[in-house]
Amino acid sequence: MSLNKDGLNKKISIAVIRRLPRYYRYLADLLRMDITRISSKELSQRMGITASQIRQDLNCFGGFGQQGYGYNVELLYREIGNILGVSDRFTTIIIGAGNMGQALANYENFEKRGFTLIGIFDINPQIIGKKIRNVEIKHMNEMDDFCRDNHVDIAILTVPYQNIPEVAKKVASLGIKGLWNFSAMDLKLSYDDIIIENVHLSDSLMVLGYKLNERRKAEETKKAEEARKSEEVREAGEAKKAE
Amino acid sequence: MSLNKDGLNKKISIAVIRRLPRYYRYLADLLRMDITRISSKELSQRMGITASQIRQDLNCFGGFGQQGYGYNVELLYREIGNILGVSDRFTTIIIGAGNMGQALANYENFEKRGFTLIGIFDINPQIIGKKIRNVEIKHMNEMDDFCRDNHVDIAILTVPYQNIPEVAKKVASLGIKGLWNFSAMDLKLSYDDIIIENVHLSDSLMVLGYKLNERRKAEETKKAEEARKSEEVREAGEAKKAE
DNA sequence: TAGATTGTTAATCGATTAACAATC
DNA sequence: TAGATTGTTAATCGATTAACAATC
Predict the structure, then answer these.
(1) What pLDDT, in 10s, does the model give residues A158-191?
(2) Domain ends where: B62, B84, B106?
(3) In a shared domain, residues B74 and B175
(4) Strand D contact at CB of residue B36, distance < 7 A
């Protein structure tokens, strides 16, 4: 539970939390454009949400704005960064250095957002020893020692479907508290002090497929409707002629 | 808009749609375990949601179950697959064959879910000509011709931040209707017949960071509370002694 | 038939939006 | 001071959950 501005425990809804990184990105864009202040109204137009929602969201954490002025972009950026723990530096390891694991290891944005990659593990001898952004891929059986010697906050799991239960159990036993799971299997662990974010890329792609189909269907319906109407007009014309 | 079971246009909420791929995955798991029937109650326990929600969700599309019996797993799996258009086969191209692009190109799950990769494009001469799962990486300037010769439903964008506006415009001009955007920039296009899914991996990671911090804070508060209490007990003991 | 479980309506809950007094 | 815009309360909207009659 987070302390809100009155120092009271107030549970902040997950819907609000999930919007914070998006605010953070938009504010970074504004900074890049040298925009120093912004009103909830203008931000709402850029982001495609209501100004009300922005003010409501931000006020879960404190009054970051100023009446008649709006919000100072840099201050707000820093505040949201603090809420998200960007400056807290989380240490991460990647387990599974296949395509996805390597892609994530190369993703420099994570560094900027407070996540430091300190280890990569796999079992494939062909890639062990290879370095990605100065981090060497090690064999899985070195992971125990590594985690004893280094504090690890988050394990990023990009191992195949069938290996997930075993790897998750191992990771839990090593005292790692955060799991970012890219495996196709939803991960649930009975240890209630472990926090898991499951990522299912293909879910998002399937939603896109659904929307495309809906659009296509709507267009077909529209076309059929138009065809029907023009047919009506034609028939009416013929009927008139026949009179 | 989807036709519901009464043949009426009923707008189905995006919240429901976004849960469908998850149902689909769980049903695939059940099939793999040779489970042929399931009740909303049992499925709810597996998935960690309410049985009410499952029945409510499924009934947006039709009565797939049977009173007293539950749902036939295979039938339900197929029905949800149809709703999501799994059998409709969407053709896709990947633009940007960096680490993420190549990782996605190698992701065999997409094939299973109805997405066929037919092209990969990049500008890096070092990787042009390389084949991923039998699809050759071509130069971006071949994309126009390619899209004229082949119908493309979806473009998967994994190009760097600064290139996104230009690439998106190009893609729109080629008549591609679905964009799956992995760039760090939110994509919005003014063409209202183009459908976009923005994916922001680091957003999800930041939410994980937030939750870890909350957990840590809660534990610290608890510890401080316990320390305070044991201090009270000690003081009470001393006060008694002093009497 | 009795038991189980759906489909569906009604009740509840929570999230979003609107409105406006406070204030810079 | 006048204008702008926040912080915050109240109203609305939509999504989730509960309940139960229908029915396999």
Answers:
(1) 999 999 999 999 999 999 999 999 998 899 887 7
(2) B84
(3) no
(4) no
